[in-house]
Amino acid sequence: MYEKKDYYYELPEELIAQDPLKDRASSRLMVLDKESGAVTHRTFRDIIEYLDPGDCLVMNDTKVIPARLLGQREGSGGAVEVLLLKRTGKDVWECLVKPGKKMRPGMRAVFGDAAETELRAEVISELDDGKRSIRFEYKGIFEEVLDRLGEMPLPPYITHKLAKEDRDRYQTVYAKNSGSAAAPTAGLHFTNELLKEIEDKGVKTAKVTLHVGLGTFRPVKADNILDHHMHSEHCEVSSETAEMINSCRQNGGRIICVGTTSVRTLESMTDEDGILRAGTKETEIFIYPGYRFRITDALITNFHLPESTLIMLVSALAGREKVLAAYEEAVREKYRFFSFGDAMFIH
Q: Could you tell me the maximum CA-CA distance found in the chain, to the nearest angstrom?
């Protein structure tokens, strides 16, 4: 149960989705009954049939920033790559860098048109796990400069480049609060039209925020998963959202999370007594089998990497054997996997 290898499954490379579907809601949907393990095959827009009046659908409204910057080192002109992970102060970010050996404290880099450099960076210090603390200098508004110069930081298993005009396909339609290095991908299947139909049915929709870091894609290296350390991620729950979700529970409705990030936010902010508290925090919550869920009843999610913390979270909700059996069926049925892939509803 606590061995990494217990969460492995065989995945043919051709099932890793490289491009998003044009119609978000046309993805396939596997429905998994967490009690019986029974599996049903549907289309994502059929999700509305599984939602009841009085339920509450909880979505992560974080927005992905074009966090990948390609530039040159000042002086040598050597190529550098900087990936923004987390803002830690005014114009200071925690970053991943390439090449790491060249990016020592005091090293400076420039980005953009050489004739009129819009963005400069200086490495302030080295952090753990090979990260760097970097201070940026720029003219104007940082977010606007980043929008011009940055690229969407797609996960390493997506090898196709996302065109600038297709950036919105790596955002949910309800993305609002900028700060993520990766999308909460379960939400990519929703359209505004589908969300309106869901609300018209009497289902409440609530927003939380968790800024997704690249720890999401960080492989579990320890053979014993209990030795794995999660990266911290910033999450927020408003008083309005807390009130809506607590009221839903009191009235007998289900709390249905869209994505593992919504689960991690709610479970981080809920007391032992099952009451969700408003506020902000840095969460390092690691959910694996044996975890007792405080508030999450059901989950809409994508298909996750073998031996990842995310497949462990899903296994905590539905049971490891049932999840792996469902994944094996998804492989047989040629579902599309990972960020741009198909969806699963666990209830």
A: 65
What does each C-alpha distance from 64 to 20, 44, 46, 289, 329 come to in angstroms?
16, 23, 27, 29, 32
Rounded-to-5 percentages of helix, strand, coil across the chain? 30, 30, 40
Q: List C-alpha distances in Å: 72 to 41, 69, 94, 134, 151.
A: 49, 10, 19, 15, 16
Q: Crossing angle of helices 260-269/309-318, nearest 10°?
A: 70
Sheet holding 56-60, edge to edge: 39-43, 28-32, 343-346, 298-302, 255-258, 56-60, 204-210, 233-237, 279-283
Closest to 142 measured CA to CA, from 169, 111, 119, 158? 119
For the chain, domain boundaries? 4-64+168-346, 68-149
Q: What is the DSSP letter of 46?
A: G
Q: Which residue has the higher pLDDT, 66 or 129?
A: 66
In the prediction, which pLDDT does 116 show?
64
**Domain 68-149 = CATH 2.40.10.240:** yes
More confident of the two residues 232 and 133? 133
Mean pLDDT of 115-138: 89
Burial (Cβ within 10 Å: 0-12, 13-18, ≥19) of residue 329: middle
Query: The pTM is what?
Result: 0.93
Residue 17 tokens, joined: 């989705």
Q: Which pairing describes strands 56-60 and 204-210: parallel, antiparallel, or unpaired?
A: parallel
- Per DSSP, what are the bridge partners of residue 258? 300
Residue type, 169: R
Instruction: Tell me which architecture the domain covering 4-64+168-346 has in CATH.
Output: 3-Layer(aba) Sandwich (3.40)
What is the b/e burial string over 232-260, where b = at least 16 CB atoms within 10 angstroms of the residue's CB? Answer: ebbbbbeeebbebbbebbeeebbbbbbbb
pLDDT tens digits, 210-259: 999 877 667 899 999 999 989 889 999 999 999 999 999 999 999 999 99
